[in-house]
Amino acid sequence: MSLRTRRKSWSRLALFGVGGTLLALIAGAAFLALAQGIAPGGSVVKSLACSPQPCLDVQDYTIWVSNVTVADGLVRMNATFRNSSPSTHADPSDLQLVDANKQSSPSIQDAPGCTHWSRTEFNNGAKLGPLAICFRPATTGSPLTLRWTPDMGLICCEADLKIR
């Protein structure tokens, strides 16, 4: 067997090995997404049943929203979390308010009456809140949607809750 033939053979084997590894990684990610009931890549998922409404339940991690008010360009709501999921924490950066123009705004903590909070570790069915969560969107007209992206690990999700 010539040197050139051996190189072709090794190149072909290496190409098959890389392709097989890539295929196995994609299959593993798809399996995890299906096993967890969510889609990969931060796609919007449907909430599991929860009450009292309005609420979102993503893999037994629940957020309840109440007392939504809009005044002087500020949207304020109370939020309570209960975590019985694989996630270990709540974080203000997990919440965005999407306005009627599809513009998202992060939560703010510098307005009077808004709870100042940071990443909070809790799980095993523990509750957090109620917290006064505030947003300063570009517009306060309906619809207003709370977008929640809880940290569920490598493959994550987001869920939307129409609040007004």
How would you characterize this protein structure?
By secondary structure, the chain is of the alpha+beta class. The protein has 2 domains: 1-36; 55-162, Immunoglobulin-like. It is 21% helix and 34% strand. The chain contains 1 helix and 10 strands, in the order αββββββββββ. An 8-stranded antiparallel β-sheet has the order 1-2-3-8-6-5-9-10, with no helix packed on it. It has a two-stranded antiparallel sheet with strand order 4-7. It is elongated, with a radius of gyration of 22 Å. The termini are far apart. 18% of the residues are buried.
Mean pLDDT: 81
Count of distinct structural domains: 2
CATH class category of the largest domain:
Mainly Beta
Q: Could you estimate the helical fraction of the residues in percent?
A: 10-25%
Poorly predicted segments: 28-42
Strand neighbour order, sheet with most strands: 1-2-3-8-6-5-9-10
CATH topology of the largest domain: Immunoglobulin-like
Radius of gyration, Cα only, in angstroms? 22 Å
Sum this structure up briefly:
The chain has 1 helix and 10 strands. The chain is of the alpha+beta class. The chain is elongated, with a radius of gyration of 22 Å.
Strand and helix map with partners:
Blueprint: H1 3-36, E1 55-58, E2 61-71, E3 74-83, E4 89-90, E5 95-98, E6 104-108, E7 120-121, E8 126-135, E9 145-148, E10 159-162
Antiparallel strand pairs: 1-2, 2-3, 3-8, 4-7, 5-6, 5-9, 6-8, 9-10
